[in-house]
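Q: Please design a sequence for this.
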């Protein structure tokens, strides 16, 4: 039986939380910055929507590819060392990206960035499981995600303003330097706690991944969470900006301003939904139920976007940002339902699926949009967005039916998930 984390002094909470928050701030900034830089990258490279989608989505595939090994490393060596080391690789990727002059060079740099920031969220979640009581996880995870939202916010109007002083290459050179600094902060500031998993044979850690991947409790929510979060990441990280330009008819500054408000709504969503999940759990309403409700509202917003609605566009995309955050709650729900020693692998198993979906969705949206010819103004055809987003919405609907079916199976079998207690 594993002893759950006990409360720690507020100063130590900040010592654990703030460095990882800085890391996730950078991770999310890297993730969505191409939504603002898309016109510059497309002009410099001369590529169409499919190539732009592939370039941006490379972040997701390298990120996803490392998730299962990452879970083992986090459970074995702890979050501080793993994230600090990987961030150095992210800095190298940003430097390569800033100095590349071919699509291949940019893809290599972008891929290395994705690999390097692949621990920024999962390492934080692992640290929180180690240091915070489990009932606080939805709230503290929400604040961590809010730090990412601030990174998304920084990738909008602030980046647009930076482009008046330098070009996109200068922006990435600055990001490379900041990433090295954050890696040092994490390594030297975050406290260390003895990790009993170091003594667990590596082969046993590998076998325990099977415990997760054969759990119906895991697979009940994983498909819906994967499609919800993957769609949110794919659209927010690239295609929201072009949609605002081509469907809503916004100019570049208005697009950046709308994306800024989307990011603000996202920060509010992470904090609000995380705090609400923690408080509602005290009244017997599970974190998973709150997440399912939020993901349902997210799909309702997607219906409005797919319909080509042009009234209340800014509010619609703010709601997209707010409810798009609900896909993070299943991480906390699963962390609460498996033993502490498996927490890193549980979260990274789900994250693997999410980022594979985000890669496929971001590239796939570009491929579908590219089926239609460009408009007279040089933009992409609105019907392409409608088709691409509509397909993602339909797949999410299928995952809801699976969630209901799997829930009925669990209830019928009187299934009890593995508990920390």
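A: Design:
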């Amino acid at each position: 039986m594993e002893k759950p984390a006990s409360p720690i002094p507020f100063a130590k909470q900040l010592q654990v939380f703030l460095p990882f928050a800085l890391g996730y701030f950078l991770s999310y900034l890297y993730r969505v910055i191409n939504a603002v830089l898309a016109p510059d990258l497309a002009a410099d490279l001369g590529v169409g929507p499919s190539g732009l989608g592939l370039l941006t989505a490379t972040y997701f595939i390298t990120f996803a590819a490392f998730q299962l090994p990452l879970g083992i490393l986090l459970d074995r060596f702890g979050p501080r060392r793993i994230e600090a080391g990987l961030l150095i690789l992210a800095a190298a990727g940003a430097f390569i990206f800033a100095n590349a002059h071919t699509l291949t060079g940019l893809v290599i740099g972008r891929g290395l960035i994705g690999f390097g920031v692949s621990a920024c969220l999962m390492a934080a979640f692992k640290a929180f499981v180690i240091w915070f009581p489990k009932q606080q996880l939805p709230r503290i995870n929400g604040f961590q995600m809010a730090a990412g939202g601030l990174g998304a916010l920084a990738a909008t109007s602030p980046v647009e303003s930076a482009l008046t002083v330098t070009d996109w290459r200068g922006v990435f050179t600055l990001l490379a330097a900041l990433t090295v600094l954050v890696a040092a902060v994490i390594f030297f500031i975050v406290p260390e706690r003895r990790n009993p998993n170091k003594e667990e044979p590596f082969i046993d850690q590998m076998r325990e991944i099977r415990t997760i991947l054969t759990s119906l409790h895991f697979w009940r929510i994983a498909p819906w969470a994967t499609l919800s979060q993957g769609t949110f990441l794919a659209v927010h990280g690239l295609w929201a900006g072009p949609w605002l330009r081509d469907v809503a008819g916004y100019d570049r500054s208005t697009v950046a301003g709308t994306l800024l408000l989307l990011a603000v709504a996202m920060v509010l969503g992470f904090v609000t939904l995380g705090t609400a999940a923690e408080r509602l759990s005290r009244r017997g309403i599970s974190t998973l139920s709150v997440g399912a409700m939020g993901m349902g509202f997210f799909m309702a917003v997607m219906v409005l976007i797919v319909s080509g609605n042009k009234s209340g566009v800014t509010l619609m995309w703010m709601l997209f940002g707010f409810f798009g955050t609900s896909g993070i709650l299943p991480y906390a729900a699963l962390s609460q339902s498996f033993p502490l020693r498996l927490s890193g692998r549980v979260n990274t198993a789900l994250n693997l699926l999410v980022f594979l979906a985000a890669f496929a969705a971001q590239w796939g949206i570009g491929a579908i949009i590219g089926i239609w010819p460009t408009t007279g103004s040089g933009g992409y055809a609105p019907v392409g967005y409608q088709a691409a987003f509509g397909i993602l919405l339909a797949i999410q609907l299928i995952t809801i039916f699976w969630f209901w079916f799997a829930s009925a199976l669990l209830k019928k079998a009187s299934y009890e998930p593995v508990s920390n207690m």
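Q: Thanks. Anything notable?
A: The chain has a mean pLDDT of 87. Residues 216-246 form the longest helix (31 residues).
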